[in-house]
Amino acid sequence: MDTTNISQSIMEALSAMSLYELIGALTGVVGVWLAARQSVWTWPVSLVSVAMYVIVFYDARLYADMGLNAFYVVTSLYGWYVWLYGGKGHTERKVGRVGKLEMLVLLALGIAFTLGLGYFLENYTDADLSYTDSATTAVSLIGYWMMAKKQIENWIVWLVVDVVYVGVYTYKDLYITAVLYFIFLILCVVGYLDWKKSLEEDKKMQLVP
């Protein structure tokens, strides 16, 4: 085994990382872990993460992802409010599910968004991986919207898109971010199981006379 080449590869990986990416990755992991635990603190922590990634993705020419994280700033504020006051009587919101009609609308919007943004990026910008970037952006928007409304299906959406993101960010030499999204895959499973347990407990409470 050539230890010199391995050391050189590690140094090249580290040099490709930025302080913004490191901060974004660390706060991103903490934010998703807090979301899995249903802690409202997920939103202020996530605000820091998405702000950092606006800068990271601009430098990487992943403009759809840059715009996505800019949108996350607004959605995080919305989610923060909904989690605190979106329940009955303006109380803390409970875990719920996505309705069939809402799911169909979200899917239709996601497809239209992917095709429209992908065409624009492919023909009018120097963006890399235009349609892949647009598709992951569309699915992520759906996932973030579901999370803001505390709908359990958000974890399934994130699980699917995170698999793609690991490949994309490895390709773009964003190694910290690729590892980050691999960790997100694990947290998605943890979050789904935790939210499912909470949802089942709430249903049992409603059945109690």
UniProtKB/TrEMBL annotation:
InterPro entries: NMN_transpt_PnuC. It is found in: Cell membrane. The chain crosses the membrane at residues 12-35, 41-59, 66-83, 103-121, 152-168, 174-195. Keywords: Cell membrane, Membrane, Transmembrane, Transmembrane helix, Transport. Pfam families: NMN_transporter. GO terms for cellular component: plasma membrane. It is a multi-pass membrane protein. One of its GO terms (molecular function) is nicotinamide riboside transmembrane transporter activity. The keyword Transcription does not apply. Belongs to the nicotinamide ribonucleoside (NR) uptake permease (TC 4.B.1) family. Required for nicotinamide riboside transport across the inner membrane. This is Nicotinamide riboside transporter PnuC. It comes from Pontibacter cellulosilyticus.
